[in-house]
Amino acid sequence: MKLTMLGTGNATVTECFNTCFLLSDEENMHFLVDTGGGNRILKVLKDCDVSLEGIHDIFITHEHLDHLLGILWLIRMIGTKMNQGTYEGTLSIYCHSELIEKICAMAEMTIQQKVCRHIGKDILFVAIETGEQMKILDSDITFFDIGSTKAKQYGFTMITKDGIKLTCLGDEPYNEDNEEFVRNSDWLMHEAFCLYKEADRFKPYEKHHSTVKEACETASRLGVANLILYHTEETHLEERKALYTEEGKQYYSGNLYVPDDMEVFEIKRSLKFPG
To answer: Is the pTM of this model over 0.85?
Structure first.
């Protein structure tokens, strides 16, 4: 399994892309998680040499603009390819039921009917609930409500066919109610809005976000072997990797990654977290 961070920034970034990522198997089939805030998703996928014909599963964590609006462009482009006969099979879009209604309404208002006619036929919406299990990329996916106080949001745990556990917490702090899904993950994806030492400047807690410190403390406490930090501010973009790693290593002794946009990881097993 390969993970490509298509974007790593928070909602208001302009120098990098909004947080979204891609999980890919050896046959170049892809599971896309979130879609960014607009049609830049198409350029990022092109720059990563990802064909839309290989994307058959998309998960939208929640309704905020920076995670949602790219789905309209993907519906438009994939639906067009269906009309042209160049896209084989169906596209499945996973999200909670209220969000399905909103995406469909936006699609009907903004996309031509010759594309929208595929919705419900070849473009399928799949409503998820906590504990809902799906088979995607030959891996077992379990979705869970992260307990957001802002907008209903879901994360997921993936168990690959090699038995590797990867957990995505969406873009808000870890909720203790989800310990069963998160504990002992081989890989954990956790938002880190800013450095702890700059919390007064960026005010992450007012936005219900974490700093590098809290994300790393969570990973340490839950026995996570590999931690990926994302959904960050962009003022330190060139130094972000070094600065976030330096602060994070004070609170976490596992493998810490602070990716740039389009950085690729091999999701493989490593030694369990020594804690």
So the answer is: yes
